[in-house]
Amino acid sequence: MRPYLVHDHQLTSAYPAYLVGTLCIVGGVTGFARTRSIPSIVAGVGVGALYLWSANRIRKGSNNGVEGAIAASAVLLLSSLPRASKGPIPAMLTVASASAGAYYGKTWYALRNI
């Protein structure tokens, strides 16, 4: 059984959540290694874990995967948006979270209208 099938086309992909989740974890660990910032590692690993959990749920076709990815995107966007102009990393996080949020938001809307 493939997850979220509509007319034999896969409607959603777990790859964006896997990618952004991995980037969050690597970024959090890197931020901690460079500056010993506890908030960096806690936020990076926390949001990254939520993205990876969501990706796994999406891949398996289980409930709440898309909703989890939307929630992770919202948390990441709200935390990175105020710092977006302070350098390339916050700007990249803002773009990545907005893109993933838009993708999974569109997917959620499409799933509700099936």
Written overview of the protein:
- A hairpin with a 2-residue loop joins strand 1 (5-6) and strand 2.
- This protein has 114 residues and is mostly helical.
- It has helices at 15-35, 38-60, 65-80, 88-112, and strands at 5-6, 9-10.
- Helix 1 packs antiparallel against helix 2 and helix 2 runs antiparallel to helix 3.
- It contains four helices and two strands; from the N terminus they run E-E-H-H-H-H.
- The longest helix is centred in the C-terminal third of the chain and has 25 residues, at 88-112.
- A two-stranded antiparallel sheet has the order 1-2.
- The two termini are 18 Å apart.
Summarize this entry quickly:
It is built from four helices and two strands.
Strand order of the largest sheet: 1-2
- Output the helix-strand order: EEHHHH
The counted number of beta strands is 2
Please state roughly what percent of the residues sit in beta strands, choosing from under 5%, 5-15%, 15-25%, 25-35%, 35-45% or over 45%. Answer: under 5%
Instruction: Give the CA-based shape.
Output: globular
> Helical proportion?
over 70%
Distance between the termini: 18 Å
Instruction: Report the C-alpha radius of gyration, rounded.
Output: 15 Å
Averaged pLDDT, please?
Answer: 88
Q: Which structural class do the helices and strands define? A: mainly alpha
Poorly predicted residue ranges = 4-9
Number of helical elements:
4
Main β-sheet description: 2 strands, antiparallel
